[in-house]
Automatic annotation (TrEMBL):
Listed name of the protein: Arginine 2,3-aminomutase
Source organism, top-level taxon: Bacteria
InterPro entries recorded: Aldolase_TIM, Arg_2_3_am_muta, Lys_aminomutase/Glu_NH3_mut, rSAM, rSAM_sf
PANTHER family for the chain: L-LYSINE 2,3-AMINOMUTASE (PTHR30538:SF1), LYSINE 2,3-AMINOMUTASE-RELATED (PTHR30538)
Entry's Gene Ontology molecular function annotations: 4 iron, 4 sulfur cluster binding; isomerase activity; metal ion binding
Domain called Radical SAM core: residue spans: 119-335
Organism: Streptomyces tsukubensis (strain DSM 42081 / NBRC 108919 / NRRL 18488 / 9993)
Keyword Metal-binding: yes
Binding annotation for [4Fe-4S] cluster: 133, 137, 140
Length: 387
């Protein structure tokens, strides 16, 4: 598959957006070394608003902040409401207080069994193998894990031993599925990542290894032939990524997905419903259909968690139902994600019911608002129509 590679071009000449040699732009390590971490670097890519500059100062020493040059190149330099910019540049909402906000509303710390292993479900665990990310997403549900505040809940021990974590998994043969997450597991070099994956594959009871990574979105150059070839030696390996807006689906991202798929690694997507970014039907329809175009299967639509420092992104559940109604029946069935809320007792589907119990059976409603009653024998007992 051939893809046209887009190069960053200044939107306005007064911006100092750098022109980068192709060999550097295609090297993920170059991007990692040159991540944007302060106001001066950010000004090379975007015209910061006064609120953004105040927020950057406000999160210093509290929440980590960095943006890859690649992801910065997707930002509208003049629009603080750009959906890419809102996900990557600190905002004053991170410093506000919201009722009910929690540091860990999904219960990772409660289900923690070792330094890295979280065992919430009977047959599967997550391993928080690193705190590092190429971009520290402002809406991260594990903001506590990547925070700069002293006393964080998990540590990667500077890439230290994973023996305790692997031993726990080996000692619990009911665990058949392990998800590597963090931080972003692909922040490791291939060699270190292979040590972890090989350690899991050596455990007979582990059937599936999954990787949760936003690198296909934030820095697709990381998805190299060498990485994909290494992962393919440990199949079955799955990868879930995290596209939130159609603007993120670039030729580079499509090429990264294609490399994964050609090496037998299925790619799914977990979108978060975010106020001001994707909380409308046209944006979400476009996102899901574009994901299918690049052969990424929509998996979850997460209701944004009420996380300390993240709550300003929350919408209402009713908004989520409105969006799900705008997807179901209007796009390919397997392009419709499952709408879920993550809680301390697990992921709970919260899609609006499409039926109402009646004395005659179930009153069913389709995507057009048409209704029909289906009786106990699953046969229609009235003609379909709009009520």
């Amino acid at each position: 598959m051939s893809h046209t590679v887009r190069k960053p071009v200044p939107a306005r000449p007064e911006l100092i957006r750098p022109r980068v040699p192709e060999t550097d732009w295609d090297d993920w390590r170059w991007h990692m070394r040159r991540r944007i971490t302060n106001v001066e670097k950010a000004r090379q890519w975007i015209n910061l608003s006064a609120d953004e500059e105040e927020a950057i100062a406000g999160v210093a020493g509290k929440y980590r902040w960095s943006v890859t040059p690649y992801y910065a190149s997707l930002m509208d330099p003049d629009d603080p409401g750009c959906p890419v910019r809102l996900q990557a540049v600190p905002a004053l909402g991170e410093l506000a207080e919201f009722p009910g906000a929690e540091v860990d509303p999904v219960g990772d710390t409660y289900y923690r069994k070792t330094n890295r292993v979280v065992h919430k479900y009977p047959d599967r665990v997550i391993m928080l193998i690193t705190e590092a990310c190429p971009v520290y997403c402002r809406h991260c549900t594990r903001k506590f894990h990547t925070t700069d505040v002293d006393g964080t809940y998990f540590r990667d021990d500077e890439g230290g031993s994973f023996d305790e974590d692997l031993r726990y998994i080996a000692d619990h043969p009911e665990i058949r599925d392990v998800l590597l997450t963090g931080g972003d597991p692909l922040s490791y070099q291939d060699g270190k990542l292979e040590e972890i994956v090989a350690g899991l594959r050596a455990i007979p009871s582990v059937e599936i290894i999954r990787i949760g990574s936003r690198f296909p979105v934030l820095l697709p150059q990381r998805i190299t032939e060498q990485l994909c070839s290494m992962l393919s030696r440990y199949h079955p390996v799955w990868l879930n990524t995290h596209f939130n807006h159609p603007k993120e689906i670039t030729p580079e991202a499509a090429a990264a997905v294609d490399r994964l798929l050609r090496h037998g690694i299925p790619v799914g997507n977990q979108t978060v419903l975010l106020r001001g970014i994707n909380d409308d039907v046209p944006t979400m329809r476009t996102l899901m259909t574009e994901l299918l175009r690049i052969r990424v299967r929509p998996y979850y639509l997460y209701h944004c968690d009420n996380v300390t420092g993240v709550s300003h992104f929350m919408t209402t559940v009713e908004k989520g139902w409105e969006i799900m109604d705008g997807l179901q029946g209007h796009i390919t069935g397997f392009g419709v994600p499952q709408y879920v809320l993550t809680t301390k007792i697990g992921k709970i589907p919260i899609a609006q019911p499409s039926f109402t119990p009646t004395p005659d059976g179930l009153l069913l409603r389709n995507y057009r608002g048409q209704e029909m009653v289906v009786g106990g024998d699953a046969q229609p007992i009235s003609e379909p129509g709009t009520r």
